[in-house]
Amino acid sequence: METSALKNDLSIKDSYAGKTILIAGASGYLGKVFLALVLEKLPDVKKIYILLRKRRLRSSRDRFEQMINRSFVFHNLHERYGAKLTDYISKRVEMLEGDVVLPNLGLSSASILELRENLDLFVNSAGLVDFNPDLREAVAINIKGTLACAEFVKSCKKARFLHVSTCFVSGQKNGRFEERVTLNLNPIGKPFDAEAEYVEITKLVEAHTDANDSLESKRQIREEMVKKGMIRAKELGWTNTYTYTKGISEHLLKLRYPDLPVSILRPSIVESSISFPFPGWNEGFNTCGPLAHLLSTWFRYLPAKKGNPFDVIPVDQVAKAMALGGMELLCGTHKEVYQAASSDLNPLSIDQAAELTSLSHQQYFRRQGRGFWQRWVRPWWRVKSIGNSFHPMGAKQMKLYCHLLSKLCRQLKMHALELKFARYEKKWGQILNVLELFRPFIHDYRQVYVTQNLTQIHIKEKDMRFDPKSWDWKIYWQDIHMPGLRRWCFPVIRRETVESLNPIHPFYWPTPAKVQTEISDVKSS
Q1: How far apart are CA 163 and CA 337, in angstroms?
Q2: Which has fewest Cβ within 10 Å: 108, 161, 296, 410?
Q3: Got the DSSP string for 32-59?
Q4: Could you read off the pLDDT tens digit of each residue along the chain, which spans 525 residues?
Q5: pTM confidence score
């Protein structure tokens, strides 16, 4: 009873008060929401360090300035603080130029000494989230980068480590997945040595350098690395290169740092926010955006298995989960794994998601469609889940039809039509590639993720609790998620200009005191 009462009296604000946090990956979709959440909801945090690498000719400070001023995730802060925003952020945030793949994160000696003495919590949301990336990049960021972050935490006096992974390290397997890391076995239950695997793929990656090669050779090597990553992942029981590298990093964290205070946060498919920073916030080429956009076209027959869970979690719920996991690390009550998912307590099936997406598109075209076809014909074009069964209008068949028609037109010397059908064949090939990437999540495996470790955390601040049962899928999908995709994601897919923030009082890093003194001296002379 006493323990329960203590838990109910916990305050997340009090737990973070006076603490120092380092965030890697703050420029990513999830990282930005977490940073905004900390700045808005946890005002008593002593210091937030942001690890950000420079990109080509742009310094990390320039990138951070642009992020604060252009991303709508920080809109609330601009509204609240106005001209005082620069002062508010600069007192709480310190930029550190570095990179997770470098020794000591590429930090300066002064920053290393300061962090080793004062850092309380390291939050690593940096990661390469492409499903089928170049294996060299995935290994560098998702494995080597994770280990570099853990090694740095180990060198600190009192720091704790929160690492963001993914629920889908579960791999090619059906079932209900508990919140733990199972060593010595791969996802399909076969003996697995993570250390030996890391040595093997490191050798493979190092053998494929393209530093001095031609552009064509570099392209070929990259394609080879993409293929090798996917092949190796599937051989060992993972669904793709992303989940494979994330899975190995989890194993290595547990093997190499058994005494380090570390927790792994596993989100499922991270999608539009429910309420923070506002309903529907999304960004870029997100996880199910390409699939939802595909269903807005004349594509109709989705190869999805009816009833399979489609585990989607709003981004602000994941950001809250990160804050809660960090709180338990700071309090010394942390768990090994926290899964931020919906399939256990508020399941959504893939056919329900497809139906809600289809209905949303129908309503949109009825209201805002252009011309006769969009307003009067397209709304009746409903999506159907066809599983793995043959369908004459399925993507594979459509690609085949276009190929045969292109070939026929070539024989008949109808060159214009030949090129037209060849383009259609290429487009259907691209659609098949998208469907193949999503296939494990919408067809092949029935997976449910337990979220007990997060839902059992009781805090005073109700708006910071993790609660997958708090939303209705129909309302969320049609009134929040789909409008968010149309505003923020579909333009990226169509290569159109995306709306960006244009604040009246933009944020600027104040000139460092030393530089300011030098400027004053020059002016005086």
Answers
A1: 10
A2: 108
A3: HHHHHHHHHH-TT-SEEEEEE--BTTB-
A4: 334 444 456 899 999 999 999 999 999 999 999 999 999 999 999 999 999 998 877 888 899 999 999 999 999 999 999 999 999 999 999 999 999 999 899 999 999 999 999 999 999 999 887 778 899 999 999 999 999 999 999 999 999 999 999 999 999 999 999 999 999 999 999 999 999 999 999 999 888 776 556 777 788 888 899 999 999 999 999 999 999 999 999 999 999 999 999 999 999 999 999 999 999 999 866 678 888 888 888 888 888 888 999 999 999 999 999 999 999 999 999 999 999 999 999 999 999 999 999 999 988 888 887 877 777 877 777 888 877 766 777 788 888 888 999 999 999 988 898 898 899 888 888 888 888 888 888 888 999 999 999 999 999 999 999 999 999 999 999 999 999 999 999 998 888 888 889 999 999 988 655 434 433 443 343
A5: 0.91
Decide if domain 1-268+311-344+450-468 falls under CATH 3.40.50.720.
yes
Q: Which residue has the tokens 């392209």?
A: 219
* Burial category of 5 from C-beta neighbours within 10 Å (exposed 0-12, middle 13-18, buried 19 and up): exposed
Q: Map out the domains of the chain as residue ranges.
A: 1-268+311-344+450-468, 286-310+348-446+471-501
Strand-pair category, 269-271 with 312-314 = parallel
Check: CB of residue 489 under 8 Å from CB of residue 293: yes
Encoded tokens for 219: 């392209």
